[in-house]
Design goal:
Elements lengths: L1 H11 L7 E4 L5 H6 L6 H11 L6 H7 L12 E6 L7 H13 L4 E6 L9 H19 L17 H13 L1
Parallel strand pairs: 1-2, 2-3
């Protein structure tokens, strides 16, 4: 629940935070629950009982989903996501990252194509933690080690890739 807590904090209490680090955080509760496979229906039903019925109450979903409150964000956000996450799909990170970027809100988005829910490969964990250390030092003050590319890390940057793609189309 930490990724959601980060996004909820930045959107619902924006004056409290100087920055945020979201790792595999759901940005839209309805799309999160809709992505749960049928064989996990017990889990989905349990989540509906705990959260509230976002299936039949779209206004409730809009109220509790950070994606619909992006305009409230005042602090920079670093997002880490695994492309193969079976619980919190990449789309959850994509939709909030691209929405923030479109609105000019500072966001960095790191995607690991060979990861799931969290970072299992040591190279990717070290890579993301190094990026988070620099991000936090930049936005909170303090020290950070110099970033060194981590051999074997598979980090890609969807926001930068889209910029390059759009620049290539414009040329």
């Amino acid at each position: 629940y930490g990724g959601y807590a980060c996004l909820a904090g930045l959107t619902f209490t924006p004056d409290v935070y100087a920055c945020g680090v979201d790792i595999v955080g759901p940005s839209n509760i309805k799309t999160l629950l809709d992505s749960i496979p049928a064989y996990w229906s017990q889990l989905r039903n349990g989540m509906l009982l705990k959260i509230g019925d976002v299936d039949t109450d779209p206004e409730f979903n809009r109220k509790i989903s950070p994606l619909f409150h992006v305009d409230n964000i005042k602090a920079p956000l670093l997002i880490g996501q695994g492309a193969n996450d079976p619980r919190v799909k990449q789309a959850e990170a994509d939709q909030i990252a691209f929405s923030m970027k479109e609105k000019g809100i500072p966001v960095e988005y790191v995607l690991y194509p060979d990861e799931g829910h969290g970072f299992a490969r040591p190279e990717n964990g070290i890579d993301f933690n190094s990026r988070a250390e620099l991000f936090l030092a930049e936005h909170l003050g303090g020290r950070a080690e110099e970033f060194v590319e981590v051999e074997g890390s598979t980090a890609v940057f969807p926001l930068l890739e889209k910029e390059k793609e759009e620049a290539g189309v414009a040329e």
